[in-house]
Prior knowledge:
Layout: H1 12-55, E1 59-63, H2 105-112, H3 129-134, H4 147-153, H5 158-176, H6 178-187, E2 189-193, H7 196-203, H8 214-234, E3 239-243, H9 252-258, H10 267-290, E4 295-299, H11 301-310, E5 319-323, E6 351-353, H12 361-374
Parallel strand pairs: 1-2, 2-3, 3-4, 5-6
Pfam families: Lipase_GDSL
Transmembrane segments: 30-48
GO molecular function, one term: hydrolase activity, acting on ester bonds
Amino acid sequence: MQIYIYHRKISLEETQHARARTQLDTRMQMAANFLYIIFLLLVTVIVLQSNVTAEVPALIVFGDSIVDPGNNNGLKCLAKCNFPPYGRDFKGQSATGRFSNGKIPTDFIASQLGIKEYLPAYLDPGLSDEDLLTGVSFASGGAGFDNITAEVASVYTLWNQLQMFEEYKRKLESAAGIERAAKIVKDSIYIIIAGSNDIMVTYFTSNLRSNYDIPSYVDYIVQAASSFIKNLHNLGVRKIGIAGVPPLGCVPMVRTIRGGITRECVEIYNQASVLLNRELSAELTRLTHDLPISQIIYLDVYSILHDLIMNSSHYGFEEATRGCCGTGKVEATLLCNEELSALTCQDTSKYLFWDAFHPTERAYELLVTPLVKNYLPILF
Length: 380
């Protein structure tokens, strides 16, 4: 018996259809794989964000006007700004006492950590128990590590702020219970921003520390900062980020007073800033070894702000040598007021500085974002 095997001839059209189906199946598989990868990435981001929020229950801040959200409002002093045009770009165009047109660094830090959108002043009369649980700022505009800096300005010294923190801990225990309060204190992130007023005002402007040269006064400031950190550690604080000072010779007010007709950056101020930052960073390294179970990091504000100033157009700024308020050359705090509204800029996003010393909200965001991304995760 013969067996015949039938071979059907496959047409060109059928071959093309088969190839097309294979290609379609391949593309669908690739698309499915891509969507799966995107899904995993989204889940990872959500988990990481939730972990950060869980691990960082609160943000606690000490320092000067850069991070003061209104603690000076009730003081009889010059270093306050709870009046227009301050806060004109803040929620509700409210002059809360923040030394800017809108948000300040601690607002951005708190929001980027997923804690809350705004970090309130500890002395805010409307402060709630929830605010206590998630953090506050004790900062006072005009303060410094050197007590005399704040005393002359009639504002709260760093040591006054430390006393407020002790009071805060007692309130926290009442609101959350002793055990939970202790955990919040231990797991929270603490930010300290001070030193600029010591250099710019106490040393260079007044004669209050005329018996010091720059290196010896820098050492005095660094030891005061070290003592402050040790006191925080004794109160249960374990995660601390302390910022260096900015390039003080390039802020508008210093350019105007000491920068000559062309208002150049003043090198001696910047040199003092660099020296203070170097010595402070070294001291923090020593403290990290000396203080058990503590995480203490140096936040390099100088490099970021110097880059923003020197390469301002790259970041979309049209003006980096003067502030938005008034002429932008000397106006700050009480000198930056509604009477100067005709001279005040219309678009703050084009200005790096809001007044003659403090950056705009947009500049603060550009400053804070790399700090949160590159430095603060070390503390988580």
